[in-house]
Design brief:
two-stranded antiparallel ribbon, elongated, 18 helices, Fumarase C, Chain B, domain 1, mainly alpha
Length: about 475
């Protein structure tokens, strides 16, 4: 038996691997685009199969496609959705514009498998043809943007769940560390006191806020332009097709979807995808900052801040025995840098559309889905293998706090800014704490000093030394 079969398309004949479920157009794309060695993201493959399956359901319902043929396409789609034949989706993400190659890859795989189900042979495309039946009433130009929306929405629950997991981990540490007062830092210089729990609670709320922003941006992706066909006008699609497609897609995907009010608009603009990518970018920026903070707070163990201790997950050096690095936080940094690059690719591709179509959709699809995948996994791992296991070094926090000249800020309301600044400068010059210097100079009585330099009280709103008095006057 030959290792290849000969198939034909408008360009002529081409040998296709005899075992392949894909066909001649996919093989041309495979040969034309040996670019990255990457395959399409699984969520994107699933989304395209959802579309083809729903189209077969729709055409069976309208009578445009004979039930026997529709049922075979549906059966082939269900095999793929169950995990079979995934290795047959072989077109590199960096391919010809719009995604025609990926669309035809899906059409050919489904057609060949459906024909086998009906007793036919691969490559003969009888009785089911990739274009005439699997792609009926569709165009690459409406299926690919629809698949992008479906792929992102299908990954949204996992993505948001990972953010919630990370946020809850930070918030739990916020409660655990609430009694630990430490030096705040601004400009990487000593600042007024803050509780370690306040820092970690802030991180948790930042992540939760990002989750809300991402969820809101995703809602725009629920509007589908399927049925717009070539340029958004709906040529070759029956009038009931768009609504039926949304109905069937909602069932097969389990997603909350809507028929877009203007398919032309949804084909011309990739703004919804770009806006969603922007919300993912905002999360990557915040997450990167948080990972950097964790690395700073754990720096040491003897020559850095060393206010927190990270769980040791692996040896940190091939030459320095006993060295432990913030490995998980460093991984998160790298993921965030990649996600920022993904968004840049999406943004520039979204701008590159012309007239009725944006042909840069394949690279947008890959970058959007890939960014969600890696950020989702990184957020979960960050929570499980780093944040959950963090311990606080309360003594080290107290050590740095007591030596911080910034606590002189609490004296400013009593002494004035200029005098307080002089004290801070003198404390640093004499290597004294602010408390030691004030006692040495006899500026305040012991009671006044204790009231003003109540470090825990300095982490709450109010004027140092006046809280109790105000409270009593208010009774």
């Amino acid at each position: 038996m030959s290792d290849t079969r000969i198939e034909r398309d408008p360009l002529g004949e081409l040998a296709v691997p005899s075992s392949a479920l894909y066909g001649v157009q996919t093989e041309r794309a495979r040969q034309n685009f040996p670019i990255s060695g990457l395959k399409p993201m699984p969520a994107f493959v699933t989304a395209m199969v959802w579309i083809k399956r729903s189209a077969a359901e729709t055409h069976k319902r309208t009578g445009r496609l004979p039930a026997e043929l529709a049922d075979a396409i549906i059966a082939a789609a269900d095999e793929i959705l169950s995990g079979k034949h995934r290795d047959q989706f072989v077109v590199d993400p960096y391919q010809a514009g719009a995604g025609t190659s990926h669309n035809m890859n899906t059409n050919e795989v489904l057609a060949n498998r459906a024909n086998e189900i009906l007793g036919g042979k691969r490559g003969e495309y009888k009785p089911i043809h990739p274009n005439d039946h699997v792609n009926m009433a569709q165009s690459t130009n409406d299926t690919i943007p629809t698949a992008i929306r479906l792929a992102v929405l299908s990954m949204l629950p996992k993505f948001l769940e990972s953010l919630d997991r990370l946020a809850e981990s930070f918030l739990a540490k916020g409660v655990e560390f609430d009694g630990i007062v430490k030096s705040g830092r601004t400009h990487l210089q000593d600042a007024t006191p803050i509780r370690l729990g306040q820092e970690f609670t802030g991180y948790g709320r930042i992540v939760k806020r990002n989750a809300g922003r991402i969820e809101a941006a995703a809602d725009w992706l629920r509007d589908l332009g399927i049925g717009g066909t070539a340029v958004g006008t709906g040529l070759n699609a029956e009038p009931e097709y768009p609504a039926l497609m949304v109905e069937h897609l909602s069932v097969v995907s389990g997603l909350d979807l809507r028929a877009g009010s203007d398919p032309v608009e949804l084909m011309q603009s990739m703004g919804d995808a770009a806006a969603f990518s922007g919300s993912v970018r905002a999360y990557a920026l915040d997450l990167n900052k948080i990972a950097n903070d964790i690395r700073l707070l754990s720096s040491g163990p003897r020559t850095g801040f060393a206010e927190i201790v990270l769980p040791a997950v692996q040896p940190g050096s091939s030459i320095m025995p006993g060295k432990i690095n913030p490995s998980i936080a460093e991984m998160v940094n790298q993921v965030c840098y990649q996600a920022l690059g993904n968004d840049t690719a999406v943004a520039t591709a979204a701008e590159a559309g012309q007239l009725e179509l944006n042909v840069m959709m394949p690279v947008m699809a890959h970058n959007l889905v890939f960014a969600m995948e890696i950020l989702s996994n990184a957020s979960r791992v960050f929570a499980e293998r780093c944040i959950d296991g963090i311990e606080a070094d309360e003594a080290q926090c107290a050590y740095w706090l007591e030596r911080s000249p910034a606590i002189v800020t609490a004296l400013a309301p009593k002494l004035g800014y200029a005098e307080a600044a002089k004290l801070a400068k003198e404390a640093v010059a004499k290597n004294l704490t602010v408390r030691e210097l004030v006692v040495e100079k006899g500026i305040l009585s012991t009671q006044e000093l204790d009231e003003v330099l109540d470090l825990r009280a300095m982490t709450e709103i109010g004027v140092p030394g006046e809280r109790e008095g105000k409270s009593q006057r208010g009774r």
